[in-house]
Amino acid sequence: MSDFNPAQQAKYDLLTSLGLPESQAQASVMTDTNPPVAAAEPTSVYAMLKIKDGANMDELSAALKAYSAAAKASAGKVNGACSIADGEIQLIETYNSPAAMDAHIGNCFPHYVKMLPHADMSEIICVCNPADVDFWTASASAWGASKFIVTPSM
Question: Which of 102, 92, 78, 106 has the alpha carbon at shortest distance from 12?
Fold first, then answer.
């Protein structure tokens, strides 16, 4: 993008070269200079990827460790935990705002794509501020989980 500095342009180019849509790459890169502002309440997300038969567990573990480190360092991340158990990758994360998800995607997508040869996204469940349901539905639906729920918190 013409308004990006060289580091932002390099990140944008990397994200789009890995298959992230241009609009998401732009939103993600922008969080590097415009950090997320906390929404009325945080969003909690549970996701699970099923590990494929024959997966290279060393490569998968390395990618998940890099993903976890990038996730924890993302602006607007309240909490994040990842593990591998019983043939599944478990992700439990809390974001302070929709923009925090954009930051997370920008930092984690390069590591996430390294997990995909070894695992398939199976479940995503988001519990969010009622005002943010549309954002989370659009954002989280992009990952192709067979079980997908976005529900407003009470």
Answer: 106
Q: Where are the domains of the chain?
A: 36-152
Give the span between the Cα atoms of 146 and 97, in whole angstroms. 24
Alpha helices, H only, the chain: 6-17, 22-30, 57-72, 98-115, 133-141
pLDDT score, position 1: 57
Closest CA to 138 of 101, 95, 96, 94: 101
Domain 36-152, what architecture?
2-Layer Sandwich (3.30)
Contact predicate 56/118, CB 8 Å: yes
pLDDT band (50, 70, 90) for residue 3 = confident
